[in-house]
Amino acid sequence: MLPSRFEYHRASSLEDALSTLDQYGDDAKVLAGGQSLIPLMKLRFASPGVLVDINDVPGLDGIEERDGVLAIGGLVRHRTLVTDDVIAARYPTIAAAAPQIADPLVRNRGTIGGSLTHADPAGDLGSVMLAMGASVVLRSSGGERVVPVDEFLVDAFTTAIEPTEILTEVRVPTPSPRSGGTYLKLERKVGDFATVAVAVALSLENGSVGRAGIALTGVGLKNIDATDATAALAGAEPTDDAFAEAGRLAAAAANPVADVRGSEEYKRHVVDVFTRRGLAAAFAGANTG
Amino acid sequence: MEISITVNGEARTADVEPRMLLTHVIREDFGLTGTHLGCDTTSCGACTVLVDGEPVKSCTMFGVQADGSDVTTVEGLAGADGLDPIQAAFQEEHGLQCGFCTPGMMLVGAALLERNPDPSDDEIRWAISGNICRCTGYMNIVKAIQAAAKAKAEAPAAATA
């Protein structure tokens, strides 16, 4: 299958990419890993007139901790999220999710910026970043703005990014030392979209729950931030009863539709179970962390 | 657009439309039909090639993106002295039936052994999890990659030839 014809522009710098976007506006699309955009173009769901390839743009593929956040460049590939030592040591929600994104070949190309900007409701990283309270940095030729992920993800395949902006960085707050997290994903086979997945992040303060983050994949028009569940947990004793209540509230926040992967009731039930299991695992991680 | 790609060690050029996928460039412009186009939807891995040593699905990358890269296809596995250990092992262990997925499976296996010369059963299954085989049930593919690892360990000189 071939996409519609387009003009290909391989950007050599961020300025080059941004000025090309300024020139073509709505008719241009940014090409990063291409693992979502190219299939969309082949199916003619997207037919941009101009592709701005940012793979050669320097400075977008770093991962570093600074000023209380982990700064992940927009071009960082999923493969790097899997192998990065800092992520493995201190960001268990990302570490748990990364090897479950798509398959190894897709992870060799796909990028964090592309995945978040694509905003597939079955995408894994949207939930991970909601659970961790992350923000994205959007750069345009006029400057940059920092947008919390819960505001960035607007609807199915829709984000707050403007046609003249590039997602250059994801900023993930560094969890406190007594923290844990995980990502539980149910899929029919490797590489399939999630039937249901739940991202969990939990930190402890003086034996009680400090901050909790719970977000849901594949059970709504976008990744769902289960705010009722996390509000109920904040300040609570980290008990099985509290986790069960959070599971119930998370399931209530889910808005699944029945499809070949399962019924609405089934998916809602999996949200409940995964939330409880995820919180228990995160709590165990926080205790040993 | 004029592009230059090093394919299996040989500098090649082609004049391609930007919308042509890397699979098309390899098969049609370079005449290397060992790279198969299967699902065409980033699912099956039959089109796997190595770009700068990493396995990728060539149906999900434009040919123009590979400009300046080093691409290895299944035709690049065998050396002057015969089959690569991974090819010999697939033959010996019956790692294929119809052969459609085999180029991708062997390239993924070869890339794995570059990084990890002694992979476990799980690591092999993990590495090939983006490649679908509808014939073998995967058992003999895993055995073949294990056998290739063993052969390379026993004859390192041949492996680097």
Q: How does this model look, in words?
A:
The complex is a heterodimer of chains A (289) and B (161). With 289 residues, chain A is of the alpha+beta class. Chain A folds into three domains: 7-51, Uridine Diphospho-n-acetylenolpyruvylglucosamine Reductase, domain 2 (2-Layer Sandwich); 63-173, Uridine Diphospho-n-acetylenolpyruvylglucosamine Reductase, domain 3, CATH 3.30.465; 179-288, CO dehydrogenase flavoprotein, C-terminal domain (Enolase-like, domain 1, 2-Layer Sandwich). Helix content of chain A is 37%, strand content 26%. Chain A is built from twelve helices and 14 strands. In chain A, β4 (63-66) and β5 (69-73) form a beta hairpin. In chain A, α10 runs antiparallel to α11 and α11 (240-253) runs antiparallel to α12 (264-288). The termini of chain A are far apart. Chain B is α+β, with helices and mostly antiparallel strands. Chain B folds into two domains: 2-76, Roll (Ubiquitin-like (UB roll)); 85-154, [2Fe-2S]-binding domain (DNA polymerase, domain 1, Orthogonal Bundle). In chain B, strands 2-1-5-3-4 form a five-stranded mixed beta sheet, covered by helices on one side. In chain B, β1 and β2 (10-15) form a beta hairpin. The chains are: A alpha+beta (289), B alpha+beta (161). Chain A binds chain B through residues 1-8, 10, 31, 34-35, 38-39, 41-42, 51, 53, 55, 79, 102-106, 108-109, 190-191, and chain B through 1, 17-21, 40-43, 45, 48, 54-57, 60-62, 64-65, 67, 108, 126-127, 129-131.
Largest pleated sheet of chain A = 5 strands, antiparallel
The helicity of chain B comes to: 25-40%
Question: Which strands sit side by side, in order, in the main sheet of chain B?
Answer: 2-1-5-3-4
Distance between the termini of chain B: 35 Å
What is the spatial order of strands in the main beta sheet of chain A? Answer: 4-5-10-6-7
Class of secondary structure makeup of chain A: alpha+beta
Order of helices and strands of chain B: EEHEEEHHHHH
**What is the CATH homologous superfamily assignment of the largest domain in chain B?**
Beta-grasp domain
- Under the CATH scheme, the architecture of the largest domain in chain B is Roll
Strand content of chain B: 5-15%
* CATH topology tier name of the largest domain in chain B: Ubiquitin-like (UB roll)
**Strand residues, percent of chain A:** 25-35%
Shape of chain B: globular
Please, how many domains of chain B? 2
